[in-house]
Amino acid sequence: MSRQDPFPLVRDEVQTLFQSCQNELDSRTAPQGRTLSTLDEVDMLLNDLDAAVNASKSDTSRYGLTSQDIVERERFVTMMREASKGMRLKLMVRVRVRGLQP
Questions:
Q1: What is the rounded distance in angstroms from the CA atom of residue 90 to the CA atom of residue 38?
Q2: What tens digit of pLDDT does each residue of 80-97 get?
Q3: pLDDT of 33-69, one tens digit each?
Q4: How distant, in Å, are the alpha carbons of 33, 49, 51, 101 from that of 73?
Q5: Which of 2, 6, 32, 58 could disulfide-link 64, Cβ–Cβ 3.0 to 4.6 Å?
Q6: Backbone phi and psi for residue 65, each to the nearest 5 degrees, phi listed first
Q7: What angle do CA 85, 78, 27 make, to 5 degrees?
Q8: Which of 95, 97, 85, 72 lies closest to 18, judged by CA?
Q9: How many Å apart are CA 14 and CA 73, to the nearest integer?
Q10: Where are the alpha helices (DSSP H) in 1-102?
Q11: Which of 19, 23, 26 is nearest to 42 (CA)?
């Protein structure tokens, strides 16, 4: 992998933000709107990562990536998208059950 590869930094940021959302959801006292806003940020970063993975597929040697690196990155993006969708669903259910505003 290239020394200038931003993927690990953005991946770490996505994981940190997602963990923050999970903590907020678990606390049941955090503002729901803040959690949704953080999930929106996670989704934007995932879109950026997805675009970067697609760009790197076209010329893996330029980016110093192996095909295995690409597969792992695609898996990460897919897994985090599904986790984000699941968290949104949990949040929406909670909002509806409690009659809260997001």
A1: 15
A2: 999 999 999 988 887 776
A3: 888 899 999 999 999 999 989 988 888 888 889 999 9
A4: 29, 8, 11, 35
A5: 2
A6: -110, 150
A7: 40
A8: 85
A9: 13
A10: 7-27, 32-57, 60-63, 67-98
A11: 19
**Residue 62 confidence (pLDDT):** 81
Nearest to 21 by CA among 77, 95, 90: 90
**How long a stretch of residues is the chain?**
102
Give first-to-last CA distance, the chain, whole Å. 41
CA distances from 10 to 14, 41, 66 (A): 6, 12, 19
Locate 36 and state its tokens: 């949704």
Whether 101 and 95 have beta carbons less than 8 Å apart is answered as: yes
Contact criterion met (CB below 8 Å) for 36 and 88: yes
User: Tokens in use for 34?
Assistant: 């803040």
